[in-house]
Amino acid sequence: MPQPSTSSNTEGYDLAFRLLLAVLVVAVPLSHLAWLGGNLTARLTGGDWAPYQPTTALLHPDQLWPHLGDTALLIGTRIVPVVVLLVLGALAAVLWSRHRNNSSGGDRKKITGMAKARDIQPLMAKATAAKARSLRPSLKDAKRVEAADAGVLLGNLQGTRHEVRMGYEDVAVAIMAPRSGKTTSLAIPSILAAPGPVLLTSNKAGGDAYTATLDARTRAGRTWSMDPQQIAHADRAMWWNPLASATTLDGANRLAGHFLAASVDASQQGDFWSKAGSNILSQLLLAAALDERPITDVMQWLAFPADRTPLDILRDHNLRAVAAQLKGTVEGPPETRDGIYETARQYAAALLNQEIAAWVTPQRDVPEFRPGDFVTSTDTLYLLSKDGGGGASALIAACADAVMRAATAQAERAGGRLDPPLLAILDEAANVCKISDLPDLYSHLGSRGIIPITILQSYRQGQKVWGDAGMDAMWSASTIKVIGSGIDDPDFADKLSRLIGDHDVQTTSTSHSESGKSTSVSMRQERILPADAIRALPKGTALCFATGMRVAMLDLRPWYLEPDAAELTAASARASKAITTRAVAKHAPKQSGFDKAA
């Protein structure tokens, strides 16, 4: 005879238990509220306080308070307790909802397997403050290390108030798509809080990091704006001599390399014409620097290869090998010579523009920007150039490079590190600041107190500028990597997903048979954050990859949500209005002599 199935009995027991639990959840607080409400009603009517009997108060209130009328008992032990219980329930639901939202980043799902506060302790306030004391002699005896002196704010650990900061020995790469918070949540807050000199490269002015920080940084020190293409329509209140660091062959090669990188992608920089054009430009830059000539003289020499002036200068400075190379090119086959010189002319073509050239040639009554003085100040340098600026962006990259090299030299003179550190925000680096060996510089800049944050729109954008090997080197050398929303490269998203890793997921399966219900539990591994989830990262969040730590999910902190946002917004509006005013005045039609006479 078959055994009766017990599955229905088991399910009945589960249902009965849940029903009993629900009754208790309601009955226990309601009985206590009835006892409390009855006693309060009795006291208000001059009666005595009844003994502690909540069950009796709920079921037979007339036994505890016989002197109360039916209406008083109804209100005190029935209506009031039910209303109070409903109010408390609603309040508990609201508080739970807020707690859930706060702990999961609003409507963002909390991701299992990501770093918790204990996993990234070196990026927390206490650790960064202690590290700052050891890195910066000026803070060694300070009673309290301010947060801004400890490191650069990256955001809050998701769902918490724990601030995550990169220290002033870290170097960072941020890959964030447009309108994902790269400027509002990373560049601007970093600039505003920087304790030392700041360098910013950008291809925008109005409503961007330039206008948002200009007023605040003016109070911190002097602001320098190099705007050769008039993005901000800034007055030419400075000039910089790019030949100051080109008095050696290595320095001249670096300067020529900036013109090459601004004009040719990494994949094309190794061909004959590119290398030959860069070499001839380097030799002419060296001659101009040694003879203390303006850089614009190089364009004259490029226009007339037969001009022997650069040859004579190189020989006068005993650089006969370099002079021989230049002579060999000049006296070589005409078609080859003309091709090399034309290539060099294209690289340096921006110097033909008088408005651009004025920023890099001596100017009367205009102060000279000196990188060596800048790195020991609390000044700010804004380097602005349009996308695809060619030679103009080469000057921007050269100036940024000169600042970082001057900072390295100063750090060596100061015992190894800059104090306070130099913050270099290389926003739109792949467009306006193509420093060819930036990946190599990343290996030692942080140890010198030079903190670069290179901001790119995509990984492939970096590969286009520095090549696969160069971008991989920069990625590997970066101690902090910030990945924002808008990652649409499937290969890169999958790479990130694999770096984040897997976690164990518990799977429960239930089976039914004649003998009843059985449950089995097994474990399997799955990606913590699959590629499609990385692509769908909501705006306002970012992934933080720190060396030797689990990957953390961050809630970004845009500047316009901070306590001083109103003041910054007003200052930004004033700066934007000033740009507009200068632009209108610059492009206003000029009056003719007849109009003036009339």
Give the SSE map:
Blueprint (H helix, E strand, L loop, with lengths): L6 H38 L9 H6 L1 H4 L5 H34 L21 H11 L11 H4 E7 L5 E5 L4 E4 L6 H12 L4 E5 L6 H12 L2 E4 L22 H15 L8 H19 L6 H7 L5 H8 L3 H11 L3 H14 L6 H4 L13 H4 L5 E5 L6 H23 L8 E6 L1 H4 L5 H4 L8 E7 L2 H19 L2 E4 L6 H11 L1 E12 L2 E12 L3 H5 L5 E6 L5 E4 L9 H23 L5 H5 L1
Parallel strand pairs: 3-8, 3-9, 4-6, 4-7, 5-6, 7-8
Antiparallel strand pairs: 1-2, 1-13, 9-12, 10-11, 12-13
Summarize the entry for a quick read.
The protein has 598 residues and is of the alpha/beta class.
Structure, explained:
- The protein is of the alpha/beta class and 598 residues long.
- The chain has a domain at 12-103.
- 50% of the residues lie in helices and 14% in strands.
- It has 24 helices and 13 strands.
- It has helices at 7-44, 54-59, 61-64, 70-103, 125-135, 147-150, 182-193, 209-220, 249-263, 272-290, 297-303, 309-316, 320-330, 334-347, 354-357, 371-374, 391-413, 429-432, 438-441, 459-477, 490-500, 531-535, 565-587, 593-597, and strands at 151-157, 163-167, 172-175, 198-202, 223-226, 380-384, 422-427, 450-456, 480-483, 502-513, 516-527, 541-546, 552-555.
- Strands 2-1-13-12-9-3-8-7-4-6-5 form an eleven-stranded mixed β-sheet, sandwiched between helices. Strands 10-11 form a two-stranded antiparallel ribbon.
- Helix 10 packs across helix 11 (297-303).
- The termini are far apart.
- The model is unreliable at 1-8 and 103-108 (pLDDT under 50).
